């Protein structure tokens, strides 16, 4: 009987080396080519994105310039407060101009004041009689006196004193109103002043005198 001997042993099998230098070189070339291709694609995308960004920026600049141009052409909105101040300034200017015209034309008649009249009233004072109000119109064209007296008989003497004052020359006291304090006034012409004074009782009386220029000159301005 024959005996077979198995001489095959994997350890003695010749091994094949598949990773060669040429294979490594080829793999490196393929990897480099892939990297270059990826870089080119990425760069192309960057260029396209930059172009889009530049386009958007130009559009934004154009819109901004259009807005500035529209704002410069649009009419400015008026401030209500400024308009009110302007109207007030114009009103004040017109008022000052009117006053200036009156002074230039001499329409006030007496621009030197009324101190002479008040001095005359003070010099003509009578004990027991006092003034409570004075009105002087224009250059003294019309004069109104209001006062009180302890007795009505003091009025004739007071009127006589006023008649001798130089500043009151040419003035005629054409109306007298006299009544007891708290009673309605009774009007009487100046010609009957003495008679009215004599008829009045001793009670405190209120009186009102109205004088005017004898030539009837009209009054254009007043002072109190």
Helix-strand pattern, N to C? HHHEEHEEHEE
| Structural shape | rod-shaped
In percent terms, what proportion of residues is strand?
15-25%
Query: Poorly predicted ranges (pLDDT <50, ≥5 residues)?
Result: 197-201, 216-224
Structure characterization notes:
The protein is of the alpha+beta class. It folds into three domains: 22-74; 76-105; 115-223, no CATH class. The chain has helices spanning 21-73, 80-105, 115-123, 154-163, 193-199; strands at residues 129-137, 142-149, 171-180, 186-189, 205-213, 222-223. The longest helix has 53 residues, at 21-73. Residues 197-201 and 216-224 have low confidence and may be disordered. The chain crosses the membrane at residues 21-42.
Keywords:
single chain; 224 residues; alpha+beta; 6-stranded antiparallel beta sheet; 19% strand; rod-shaped
Give a concise summary.
With 224 residues, the chain is α+β, with helices and mostly antiparallel strands.
How do the strands and helices of this protein lay out in sequence?
Blueprint: H1 21-73, H2 80-105, H3 115-123, E1 129-137, E2 142-149, H4 154-163, E3 171-180, E4 186-189, H5 193-199, E5 205-213, E6 222-223
Antiparallel strand pairs: 1-2, 1-6, 2-5, 3-4, 3-5
């Amino acid at each position: 009987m024959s005996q077979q001997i198995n001489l095959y042993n994997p350890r003695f099998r010749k091994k094949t080396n598949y990773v060669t230098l040429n294979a490594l070189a080829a793999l490196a070339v393929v990897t480099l080519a892939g990297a270059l291709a990826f870089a080119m694609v990425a760069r192309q995308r960057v260029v396209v994105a930059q172009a889009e960004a530049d386009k958007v920026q130009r559009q934004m600049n154009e819109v901004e310039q259009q807005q500035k141009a529209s704002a410069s052409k649009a009419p400015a909105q008026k401030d209500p407060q400024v308009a009110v101040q302007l109207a007030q300034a114009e009103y004040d200017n017109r008022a000052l101009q009117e006053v200036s015209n009156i002074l230039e034309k001499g329409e006030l008649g007496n621009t030197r004041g009324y101190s002479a009249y008040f001095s005359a009233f003070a010099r003509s004072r009578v004990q027991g009689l006092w003034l409570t109000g004075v009105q002087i119109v224009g250059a003294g064209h019309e004069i109104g006196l209001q006062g009180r007296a302890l007795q009505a008989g003091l009025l004739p003497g007071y009127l006589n004193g006023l008649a001798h004052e130089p500043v009151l020359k040419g003035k005629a006291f054409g109306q007298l109103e006299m009544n007891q304090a708290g009673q309605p006034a009774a009007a009487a012409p100046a010609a009957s002043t003495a008679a009215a004074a004599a008829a009045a009782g001793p009670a405190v009386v209120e009186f009102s005198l109205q004088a005017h220029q004898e030539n009837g000159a009209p009054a254009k301005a007043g002072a109190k």
